[in-house]
Amino acid sequence: MQFFAGDASTVTAEHNWAVDALMRAAVSYGVNHGAAYAASRVPEIKELLRQRGFQEKDGQMVIEASRIVKICKD
């Protein structure tokens, strides 16, 4: 995922909404293809991800996918 919003001083609520929606779509796609975790190396959205429960590990933001999307059993 890549998102361009300029520097941090120009980020608005609309930018955060778009990043959040893209992050959730990416995690949902990953879960549908067997992913158990989500990770991001995009430094510009680090604080937004931290607010959503991601934790920093080895230079990236990581979270269990089940904390972002509901995983249904077949």
Automatic annotation (TrEMBL):
Q: Which domain of life is it from?
A: Bacteria
Q: What is this protein called?
A: Uncharacterized protein
What species is this protein from? Hydrogeniiclostridium mannosilyticum
The organism that produces this protein has a lineage beginning with: Bacteria, Bacillati, Bacillota, Clostridia, Eubacteriales
